[in-house]
Amino acid sequence: MMMMMAGPFGWGTVDEGWRKGPWTPEEDKLLIEYVRVHGEGRWNSVASLAGLKRNGKSCRLRWVNYLRPDLKRGHITPQEEKIIIELHARWGNRWSTIARSLPGRTDNEIKNYWRTHFKKSEKSTQKIDKAKTRALKRQEQKKQQQQQQQQLDMKTCISQLEEGEYKVSLPQARLEMFSMYPPADDQCMSTMFHTDTSPPDAALSDGGLWGGLWNLDDLRADIDNMCATSKAMEEEIQVTPSFYPGFFN
DNA sequence: AAAGAAACCAACCGCGAGGGT
DNA sequence: TACCCTCGCGGTTGGTTTCTT
Questions:
Q1: Strand C: which of residues 47-86 in chain A lie with Cβ below 7 A?
Q2: Which of A12, A100, A147, A220 sits at a 20 to 30 Å CA gap from A237?
Q3: What is the pLDDT of residues A116-135, one digit of tens each?
Q4: What percent of chain A has pLDDT over 90?
Q5: Given a cut of 50, is residue A87 above it in pLDDT?
Q6: Domain ranges of chain A
Q7: For residue A228, what pLDDT band results from cuts at 50, 70 and 90?
Q8: A39-CA/B9-C1' distance, Å
């Protein structure tokens, strides 16, 4: 059960008999006195020994983050900021570890400072990372679709050839393949047009007068080569700022 | 001057580690 | 070994203050 109340210690909520919310100067005095007499620790006995209607957790937090006499108040200095950045790079969100290197500063203070001053840039970095991932996925999907379509067309082509429905010369068929799926580099190009009997330019100029009928083994080798090239291209995909015009301005 | 947005910070919550029984 | 209790830590929330339009 929780309720709002006004009492000798001001406004606050009472939950299961424990006060919650902002601490009053009276409560602070009682806690300071308790620590002076009994020392730090045994926080759960504060309620009975000091007459505070606060649970141990709340008392410890108030002492550690606000009442400790060795606390340094005021703004984080540039030197401290530098230390925070360096230690955060090393330790991540281990605030208490970072706080040990900054005498007078609490983990809570450092945590709040970090969230206020650096979280925004972290967010935009995450945004960029997400965008990169999305773009990569799109690229891969597109590539996969292309490859699937390509292989499907090739298979159709092969079956047509096997069934004798696609009677064109080898160079002509290769030219058709090229027009459908232009190779991305010179190496692939030479693979596409290479034959043992004629130079590529002959194939282009001759329009199918040489080379005879389509050789299925050649075609399968061509498909393998194209797939290998396409895979190699896929591995070389790099994300550049041009993919994310909004983020790199 | 007022309203809304952003920044700041105290405090709470849940969880896990460690020690005692 | 299992359970309980206490403490400490990191994440989150919500109220207040400051800034911007």
A1: 56-57, 60
A2: A220
A3: 887 655 545 544 444 444 44
A4: 0
A5: yes
A6: 2-67, 78-117, 141-243
A7: very low
A8: 27
Distances in whole angstroms, Cα of residue A174 to Cα of each of A6, A58, A134, A197, A233: 89, 79, 35, 15, 21
Topology adopted by domain A2-67 = Arc Repressor Mutant, subunit A (1.10.10)
Look-up of token digits 């590539």:
A143
Distance A160 CA to B17 C1' (A): 70
The Cα–Cα gap between A9 and A20 comes to: 11
Q: Which segments of chain A are extended strands (E)?
A: 2-7, 10-15, 18-20
Question: In chain A, what's the furthest Cα-to-Cα distance?
Answer: 107
Confidence at residue A122, expressed as pLDDT on a 0 to 100 scale: 53
Please state, rounded to an integer, the average pLDDT across all residues of chain A. 59
Fold of A78-117: Arc Repressor Mutant, subunit A (1.10.10)
> What are the distances in angstroms from CA A150 to CA A66, A166, A242?
68, 17, 28
Distance (Å, rounded) from C-alpha A249 to C-alpha A245?
7
Question: DSSP letter at A12?
Answer: E
Among chain A residues 104-163, those with CB within 7 Å of any atom of strand C = 107-108, 111-112, 115
- Whether A2-67 shares its CATH topology with A78-117 is answered yes
d(CA A28, CA A203) in angstroms, rounded, equals 93
Q: Measuring CA to CA, which residue among A34, A33, A31, A6 is closest to residue A21?
A: A6
The whole-model pTM stands at 0.53
